[in-house]
Known about the structure:
This protein has 358 residues and is an alpha/beta fold. It is built from 12 helices and 12 strands. The chain has helices at residues 21-32, 50-54, 68-78, 92-97, 99-117, 155-173, 202-212, 231-245, 267-277, 302-308, 316-333, 338-351; strands at residues 12-16, 36-41, 59-62, 82-85, 125-129, 182-188, 190-192, 216-218, 224-229, 254-257, 264-266, 283-285. α6 (155-173) links the parallel β5 and β6 (182-188). The termini are close together. Pathway: Bacterial outer membrane biogenesis; LPS O-antigen biosynthesis.
Amino acid sequence: MILFDDAYRGRRVLVTGHTGFKGSWLSMWLARLGADVSGIALDPDTSPSHWDLLGLGIDSRRLDLRNAAALREAVREVRPEVVFHLAAQSLVRRSYRDPLGTWNTNVMGTANLLEACRDVGGLRAVVIATSDKCYQNNEWCWGYRETDPLGGNDPYSASKAATELLAASYRRSFFAGGEAALIATARAGNVIGGGDWSEDRLVPDIVRAIAAGAEVQIRSPRATRPWQHVLEPLSGYLLLGARLLRGDDMFATAWNFGPGPEANLEVATFLEAFAALWPDLRWRAEDMQGPHEAGQLNLDSARARTELGWRPVWEIGEAIERTVAWYRHHATHGLACSENQVDEFEQDAARGDAVWCR
Length: 358
């Protein structure tokens, strides 16, 4: 089975944020694809952490993207051919507590990385992960498209919109023409999957409550999100990176990677599906005072489907099932079954004739 046109085999690939939830899954997958993976990130901020459970033997460098000089030196040493930039302050509620840290990490951290990349000979592609929250959210019932206005009420969402503008500026100013690397941005919907223990996220809150034998408190049971398994947008990032490696600049732009409309579920509906698979889940809605969070958020990924040929592999029910299975396996054995789930995902993609799986 050939995955992503075998584009990553033997390539020097840099993943920022490799110790985080999405970054650790991506680093593992890239290593399976035969890439020479290096990572730049802070230490994991949760215990347990998916990164520690995986035990990947890759080049792992611990530094802060806000340290421009140290970052430049690290990138110079790695000499990446491909960069996947996932490092970020990724939590909305934390961004209210630390707005300057969020802006500095998400915007200036990305600027520092792109500055460092300007000095790398042989760099071919850069994929920058932002967020579906980068759009000006009008609480519409239809999905946001790549051409819709950027915005954001909270510091996190606004910082991701600013990161999109930053990436577009660098693409036009410093990475245009000749042998310059191609830069794309990727905006993903809400991801679920094993190995996430972040604060103020639904699935980690559920798992912690089950472990404590407590009810999970739900702030907004009627809020709607585009739920998808973490491997879905990662397959989009990898497919996008492979297209950039071909040197086709039509792909050096912004892309949405989200589920179909059937996966835009209310939080309460998501909880019911989760509880059907793990009956220990008990929850209650509470009027918890706090900063503003979006009530409805949908993503339109039609462009990725038509122009990249990307589409989701697992329906929402399967995504929830794999997520529950991962956490129940960890609760019983203390181990990650991530490798097995990537195997299942690849096999299902092949059966579904996914464009990246031949």
